[in-house]
Design brief:
The protein is α/β, with parallel strands linked by helices. The chain contains 10 helices and 29 strands. Helix 8 packs across helix 9.
């Protein structure tokens, strides 16, 4: 198990939302100066409009200990230099219909990628080994792997609708090998995986981020993350202490990962206090060898040397001092699950399935919508299936208990104990058991349009998921122990004679 920190600052060359964007360059310089002050190596990802401005390459070449790569949002100079017509409102336009590679036909994506990579090589003398973007489609990533190869790519944390971008259901923290059909899902098999590790950025609050906007999913979900500009998150010293304790505690199976840093659009005056505080707190962990500070590329090369397939991983958070809550995230190349403890109750807040067969909507056609959504396959989605007073989840019926604990159960397994109920997550299955003869699980959900449930059979739950484009995909959840039953209040899952319910994902 390895504790990893990346400092990734990514730079835009223009900011149309500001009357004067001359602060962009000095913001990046100040970020690099701060890293130099602490002796920290960092990664800088240049958007194309910064790459073609002489001052940005000159800055990162001027003696800083820095790895340089590409930030692959699409901007006007990239489109025009690739021989295409720009349809945005500004030289950099955050409108999803022009901003991401998925907004273009596959052949156009090839041209944009080729131009960005060639210009980078003309500038630095080599092709970049790292890149990032808030969202990347599997087609583009596979093309990059085939033509150029990368050590690593970074994408946004899980979020629903923030800035028009939805990436929902993937590995909650750390790195994974994406599938060739869907970049948010880890591939199940070697032949179906893209060999570029993807790392999740921004350091989400492991307890709070998921539920922001709960009960009324909005187009713009709120943010609680390690980003230093957020006063309730990465700008708050107490929050950062808890984040570091949880992230680099004993909760991860394969690796614990966090990305520090900020895009220069936020302006140094808004970044300085939070980022300086974070690096000050990170330094003793690095000096003591408790955390390994790497560039993004070094993390990718380590991941590839350590794992041929995506390893199971986990994250544990403890908010007992503030609100008496704890949580366990567990994810493998077959599924992810989140167990939340709150108000003396523990339940499955989130359960998403992974498969190599489910194609993301923009794999071979361009996105023409004002929102961009890439999903996994939901069995339970505590955020999207909640509404009003209904808090969606899979709830054990066995009485309340103030006792909740999480521990590693085996090499690739985690176990959560709530009173007499035991949740055991391993790579291919999730088991919930209880000796109480009255025990069963209740699947609660509001009657929202996104519900996937088609048919309840004895040991099979049949589902169909529809994404933002109304593309439909059918899938099943099977039990190897216990059985389903339709009930007036939703779906119930009863145990076998030994008190065991086992969900099979392989």
């Amino acid at each position: 198990m390895k504790n990893i920190a990346n400092i990734i600052n990514f730079a835009r060359g223009c900011e149309p939302r500001a009357e004067d964007d001359s602060y962009l360059y000095p913001t990046l310089k100040a970020e690099l100066d701060l890293c130099r002050q602490y002796g920290f190596r960092s990664t800088v990802l240049l958007q194309y409009d910064a790459l073609v401005k002489a001052e940005y390459p000159a800055l990162v070449k001027s003696g800083y200990d820095v790895e340089v790569g590409l930030w692959l949002e699409v901007v006007q100079p990239l489109v025009e230099d690739a021989g295409m017509v720009w349809h945005g409102r500004f030289p950099w336009d955050w409108d999803i219909r022009v901003n991401f590679l998925s907004a273009y036909e596959p052949a156009e994506r090839d041209k944009l990628i080729d131009k960005a990579f060639r210009t980078f090589k003309e500038t630095f003398g080599y092709y970049p080994k790292v890149a990032g973007c808030w969202s990347i489609d599997a087609y583009s990533l596979a093309y990059i792997e085939k033509r150029y190869g990368l050590s690593a790519f970074c994408i946004c944390k899980d979020q629903y609708g923030t800035d028009g971008i939805t990436v929902w259901g993937g590995y909650y923290t750390g790195g994974y090998y994406p599938g060739r059909n869907n970049a948010i899902m880890p591939a199940r098999t070697k032949e179906n995986q893209i060999g570029i590790p993807l790392f999740r950025m921004l350091g989400p609050d492991i307890i709070d981020q998921y539920d922001l906007g709960l009960g009324s999913p909005l187009e713009n979900q709120s943010v609680c993350s390690l980003e230093p500009v957020y006063k309730d998150g990465g700008g708050n010293p107490e929050w950062v202490d808890r984040f570091l304790r949880d992230t680099y505690g004993a909760g991860a199976l394969s690796h614990a990962y966090a990305q520090f840093g900020q895009e220069n659009s936020f302006d140094w005056k808004n970044i300085e206090a939070g980022l300086s505080m974070q690096l000050r707190k990170l330094q003793p962990l690095v000096n003591a060898g408790k955390v390994t500070l790497q560039t993004l590329g070094e993390s990718g090369e380590w991941f590839k040397s350590a794992y041929a397939l995506t390893p199971p991983n986990s994250a544990v958070a403890d908010d007992m001092q503030r609100t008496a809550r704890k949580t366990l995230w567990y994810y493998s190349r077959y599924y992810r699950v989140n167990i939340l403890f709150e108000n003396n109750r523990a339940w499955i807040r989130d359960l998403q399935l992974y498969t190599d067969d489910y194609a993301e909507p923009y794999l071979h056609k361009k996105n023409t919508d004002t929102r961009c959504g890439t999903f996994a396959l939901p069995v339970m989605d505590g955020f999207r299936f909640s509404e009003g007073s209904v808090r969606a989840g899979i709830y054990p019926h066995a009485g309340d208990s103030p006792r909740f604990s999480v521990a590693q159960a085996a090499k690739n397994a985690m176990r959560a104990l709530w009173g007499s109920v035991t949740f055991t997550a391993d790579e291919r299955a999730l088991t919930v058991q209880c000796p109480d003869r009255r025990f069963y699980l209740s699947m609660r959900y509001a009657q929202v349009p996104t519900l996937p449930y088609d048919n309840v059979e004895h040991t099979v739950l049949r589902c169909t998921f529809r994404d933002f484009t109304d593309q439909a995909f059918s899938y099943t959840l099977r039990l190897s122990a216990g059985f389903f039953e339709k009930a007036a209040d939703g779906i119930r899952i009863y145990p076998d004679e030994s008190g065991k319910i086992t969900f099979c994902f392989a």
